[in-house]
Automatic annotation (TrEMBL):
It comes from Gryllotalpicola daejeonensis. Belongs to the ROK (NagC/XylR) family. This is ROK family protein. InterPro entries: ATPase_NBD, ROK. PANTHER family: BIFUNCTIONAL UDP-N-ACETYLGLUCOSAMINE 2-EPIMERASE_N-ACETYLMANNOSAMINE KINASE, ROK (REPRESSOR, ORF, KINASE) FAMILY.
Length: 308
């Protein structure tokens, strides 16, 4: 049994993984706030998922992988600056190894989701995971291994300016990709009190609301820009769109592909790259980040290098 924990700002999603990426047990608990609560709740989620799996006949616990926001030192098992969880610096791997009695590996949440998407989609070669969540970030996987870059910050594309006439981003720049394609920013621009603001936005656009149509078009443009950035800078074979915004499903991915095809029609260079054919949607029916965390817990600490 391999455990995977996706620790988010509000909940811990824990899975017990068997062979062939089969989820044998699953549990969800609140994340908590501050080091003591985060560690205790992560342990509780892990034990609950393991108990469900054990009742189904799973073998003893082999490893634990964790995906968590913030700056992660995967080798040391330390997470820093996870502000939404109240963590300035936490030796998360050490604490949970002591509590669970199994090796623990910690990975950035987007990197963990990248690994999960890569394996669930049965990809090979190089992939970028474009995470359109509250904010925007990307993760890279090459030949089955996460690629973090020289200093661990590969994929921080959300703060690349794409609209010089746009709004001021929280980072201080103007018109960052995150301000046009991040779910949090789009929801704030739309306003209202709908439980699912992006669904409400899309429904209003379908009904002909002009402001909704403009915001939706901006989101499509931003997502397409993210795809272009990832392919033009890293030349990955596949870009997988995930994160909360991806739950819009075909309403998102079809429009992004259409926008990429529009751009290709006026640019022979972009046409040659076959951008729209290289875009996939994350599997929406699987706990991708938690599965990726479980896989990260068993990945040897060797970095893959890009093919020349």
């Amino acid at each position: 049994m391999r455990l995977g924990l996706d620790i988010g700002g509000t909940k811990v999603d824990a899975v017990a993984l068997g062979d062939d990426l089969e989820v044998l047990g699953r549990a969800r608990v609140a994340s908590g706030f501050g080091p003591e609560q985060v560690v205790a709740n992560a342990e509780a989620a892990a034990r609950q998922a393991a108990e469900v799996a054990a009742a189904a006949g799973a073998t003893p616990l082999e490893s634990v992988g964790i995906g968590i926001p913030g700056i992660v030192d995967a080798e040391a098992g330390v997470v820093r600056h996870a502000v939404n969880l109240g963590l300035e610096q936490l030796e998360l791997a050490r604490h949970l190894e002591q509590r669970l009695g199994a090796p623990v590996r910690v990975e950035n949440d987007v990197n963990a989701a990248s690994l999960g998407a890569y394996h669930l989609l049965g990809l090979d070669g190089s992939m970028a995971y474009l995470n359109l969540g509250t904010g925007v970030a990307a993760g890279f996987v090459n030949d089955g291994a996460v690629w973090r870059g020289a200093r661990g910050t590969a994929g921080e594309i959300g703060h690349i300016p794409v609209d010089p006439t746009g709004v001021i981003c929280g980072c201080g720049q103007v018109g960052c990709l995150e301000t046009v394609a991040g779910g949090g920013w789009v929801a704030r621009k739309w306003g209202g009190d709908a439980a699912l603001p992006l669904v409400d936005l899309f429904d209003s656009a379908d009904a002909g609301d002009e402001r909704a149509l403009a915001l939706r078009a901006e989101l499509f443009e931003g997502a397409a820009a993210g795809v272009r950035i990832l392919i033009l800078t890293a030349d990955v074979e596949t870009v997988v769109i995930g994160g909360g915004v991806a739950n819009l499903g075909a309403r998102l991915i079809d429009a992004v592909r259409d926008r990429l095809d529009e751009l290709a029609r006026v640019s022979p260079f972009l046409s040659s790259l076959e951008l729209s054919a290289r875009v996939r949607l994350v599997p929406l029916d699987r706990p991708v980040a938690a599965i990726g965390a479980a896989l990260a817990g068993t990945v040897p600490e060797t970095e893959a290098s890009w093919r020349s």
